[in-house]
User: Fold this.
Amino acid sequence: MKKRFWAYLVVVIGAALMVSIPVSAACAPAVKPEECASILPGTWCRGEGLWGILGIILDIMTMGVGVLATIGIVISGIQWLTSRDNESQVAKAKSRIFNIVIGILFWALLWLLLGWLLPGVISFEDPTGGTPAGDCPPGEWESLQPKPPSPGPSPTPPGDGGTLPPGSETSLPIGNPKADSSNIACDPRTVDLGVHDGWNNGVRTFYRMCSIPNLSSTTTAGYMAVLQKAGKTNLSGKAVLNSRVAGAVYSMAAAAKADGITLTAGSTFRSFEWQRDNCNLSSSQKDRLNAQRLTGKVDRICNKDSKMMAPPGYSNHQSGTAIDFTRSCNNGPAKGPCNTAMYRWLKANSTRFGFSQYVNEYWHYDTRNFKP
Ligand SMILES: [Zn+2]
Assistant:
């Protein structure tokens, strides 16, 4: 029983050595981070030239001694364990362990002596202590440590100068209409609704949304969530578009009004939920889409006619750059012409404001043909 206990102890000590011996890290003068990293990332640094090479050789030898000693102790321990009461076997194992321990002590003494004689080769600072180890230049040791993951994108907080002063009205889209508009102010004639997430070609993109006071919208379901988030439910009934096109749309509606035409919109900005729930997706497709959505990138899935309904994440309505005008030609062909005063006016004038009709839907106008 007693013998067995000692044998177990030897095996445990051997295993502990296996873990602890190979660590003999140090930082010598003039260490460059990339050299440290190329030896062993984040744990070893060595000086340049001969010092560095000597240090590496010493480390390899230390590791070799450690590995050999550990293997020897473990084997001897197992021999001891399995020897039953064979006295000569036990004696052999004991003497081998004794020799190994003497060997380790001898190597440790030699190592300490070398460290004292050649301080550029071995230094005794603890590399895992969290402070710059050895003689590493300030900051270089830190640069080797593992970095925390960088935080993901976060929306620009709303209300940071989202509206422009009078005199800065625009009649054309600002830059690429579908690009992030979180830092583009709403035209002074429109109302800032803050920054919200929208989608551009399957990729989540942040847009500042603006309510257009001179363009009524009969379909508010697609952007009620935006209005509610902005605390402005009293604006429902007005078109909502992103701040890159809000001024152009206001100008377009004002120009039509001057010509005696009142533009009226159906769907303008649409939420992800609206586009998703109008695509006839199966429940498993919906689950897959909802999971993808969290990653900020979604695949094209929609079970409706692709010409008439874009997959969720891919509609120009989701970037706040599209307007469906009221469909007064309900019984007419999808492509038009729809011969009402509003549509005649739009056909003739919308391009002056960066908008054009989508060929498959006479009611849908967006910025796809606009060149900044
Ligand atoms: Zn549309």
User: Anything to note?
Assistant: Residues 2-144 form one domain.
